[in-house]
Amino acid sequence: MIKLPFHINKMADLPPTFVPGFHDESEVRKMRYNKFGDTGLKVSHLSVGTGGFCLQYGDYTIELCKAMLHQAIKSGINYIDTAPWYGHGVAEEVLGKCLEGIPRQAYYIATKVGRYEADPKSMFDFSTEKTTWSIDTSLKKLGIDYIDIIQVHDIEFAPSLDIVLNETLPTLEEALIAGKAKYIGVTGYPVKCLYQCIKKSRVKIDTVLSYCRLSLLDNTFNQYRPYFQTRNLGIINAAANCMGLLTNGGPQPWHPASKEIKDVCKEAREYCKSKGVELAKLAVYYSFQRPGPHTHLVGMNNCDLLKANMDVLHNGLTDLEKDVLEHLQKKIFINLERGNWEGVELEKRRKILSQ
Length: 355
What we know:
This protein has about 350 residues and is of the alpha/beta class. Helices cover about 45% and strands about 15% of the residues. Strand 8, helix 8 and strand 9 form a beta-alpha-beta unit. Helix 3 (about 60-75) runs parallel beside helix 11 (about 305-315). The protein is globular, with a radius of gyration of 20 Å. The protein starts with 5 loop residues before the first helix and ends with a helix. It comes from Ignelater luminosus.
């Protein structure tokens, strides 16, 4: 057997995204990486969501976003998710500026097509023409030559699943052939809809993104996890804090959850505050421990949030935090009859469009 030099063996332990001279090697070696379905990619267990690279979740600055992103990538995070919907184009522009100075090899980037404007009547467009335009626009805003994962955004809002199957996905396949993207994914809130799309699609789907469905409030994702795993999909779990519900700061006014859910989360939030514990940390930790996902997408737009999420990834919870988490599960969240808001946004949209 031929023995490789020690430095070559040592480099083999690092992910393909490692760039000597740019990364903090000691931090990268601490990061957990997972095989991303059958894509051949190795993704960090924690990844960066850019919903906060705009005013959608409150204040932000480009400077803070850029500092966070550079530190995240240097510390071993290698997966970034964005979308034209976030800030209606703003987040992609901000992310493009934040990527300056980061080697392209150092990260995988995912963006989306299908969801765009604030106006409900022009919010969604899954047509071939709009999809093609969206991919080209994203490439320009991000300042990159290709997108690693191009995803159909919130497929449940398409006029019919047939449009996604027969128009949007084939258009994404053409983008792969043209070299504009490498892999195709679907995202959405109703996990059953994701399952149906993947099962029926004639276009190969490589990844699936589920959000708020593997959390302290709701574990619907687990019903479909075995199927996604048999298809060898790259599995992305997003929004462990349920878009702000499971944080000490609470959700934004637009959050679609019911009053019952918001009241229970408020009770949990107040209990955490009384113990000096951050609810978001408990929520992220809980999701990190669930089997199935290859990466957990967490929205971050400053270094304090990055530090907090890296801490829970590497160090877990303190004894006090574990006790608080147990109390929340056994005494507070157990009282929820329904921990999701599936159908609420769809019904609201139908009413608006019918007016």
